[in-house]
Write a structure and sequence with these properties.
Helix content of chain B: 25-40%
Helix content of chain A: 25-40%
Distance between the termini of chain A: 46 Å
Strand content of chain A: 15-25%
Largest interface: A-B, 26 and 28 residues
Strand content of chain B: 15-25%
Number of strands of chain A: 14
Strand order of the largest sheet of chain A: 4-5-10-6-7
Number of domains of chain B: 2
Strand order of the largest sheet of chain B: 2-1-5-3-4
Shape of chain A: globular
Oligomer: heterodimer
Structural class of chain B: alpha+beta
CATH class of the largest domain in chain A: Alpha Beta
Largest sheet of chain B: 5 strands, mixed
Mean pLDDT of chain B: 95
CATH architecture of the largest domain in chain A: 2-Layer Sandwich
Low-confidence stretches of chain A: none
Chain lengths: 266, 159
Amino acid sequence: MYSFNYLKPGSIKEAESLLSESDDNKVISGGMTLLPTLKQRLARIDNLIGLEKCGLDKIILREGLLNIGAMVTHFDVSNSALVKTENPAIAQLASHIGDRQVRNRGTIGGSLANNDPSACYPAAILAMSGTIHTTKRDIKAENFFVDLFETALEEDEIITSVSLPKPERAAYEKFPNPASRYAIVGIFVAKFDSEVRVAVTGAGEEGVFRCQQIETALSAKFLPESLSEINISADGLMSDIHAEADYRAHLIVELAKRAVAKSIAR
Amino acid sequence: MTEVTLTVNGKKYTQNVFDHVLLSDFIREKLKLTGTHIGCDTSQCGACVIHLDGKSIKSCTMLAVQADGCDVLTIEGLADGDVLHPMQRAFHENHGLQCGFCTPGMIMSAIELIKGKPDITEQEIRQGLEGNLCRCTGYQNIVKSIQEAAKNENNLTNR
């Protein structure tokens, strides 16, 4: 690892000002991606700004929305009584991210800011039309995820929390890579009063995306059978050593059916 | 350099460390507690698992400065003199290891895994060990060891 200084600001304001001082300053939350990257010398940083003392670790209900602080760990999301009541699907999703030790350190804010194309949380936030609150503004999920490992965040902008509306029904299904546990394909299905939203992670060449074909079919009738005639095009889907694009296309439909069934059974 | 103070296996240490030093390296090289192993550089193998404020974490994926003020438990802190911790004894009695390299991490993960779960299933144990790799045993006897320790969970004291 290259050497760096580790800073522990006591407030988010202070963290923001430290971050804006240099392009070579970076924020760290759980560090489950950043630290391995630094260990491999794939990144070089002057100052690493830890957010652990910035008070971003609360889960609250605010104006009817579930608000999860950026520094809340996957374990705490999966284990919170409030999350389990308000949004059991995201609690279940969090309980299957990475491995146990990753869940004890990794955070929702870190996962969203990193926007790994195979991460689980982006699918949930996009499907539930969440809002990402930052030090500068509120960003709708639709405008937040830009491309692989790229978000709408500016260089000196920090995620503070995420707000999620309560869906009538929702569930996440993933097909994990047997070695890495990352999603080869992950599907989050969310049914609201006015619409059905379906987001896909792990499969898109540009990261997480919504699948209109499945949304339309489920809006007509919210049942797994509604998807039996659906064929998803492999265009724009990833092909890599883990899976071909057409296999991922097949998985999208299959996992969507399972997610719908799971959300109805819940 | 930053001064950090942390409690490791009940003993308080205050040391100056470079900010980029990993907690695993700090434990092994500064404190000379070499029971915590380093088996990979990609955060996947779990040989370095310790407890930080009661939670299992990979000490190779955390900085020593981040553990300032924390309570750390390593494999060396489990046995009471010559008396093994129940999880260590279960691994010993069920042949839950071959080469033994992954064992410290396995045991630290397993202790957290069975906490409050005397009836933990084989499936739950296997899933709970996702973050720990073993290249010798095929996991069979590791799972068996953990299941037995879980049954004796009433005797487990988490120190």
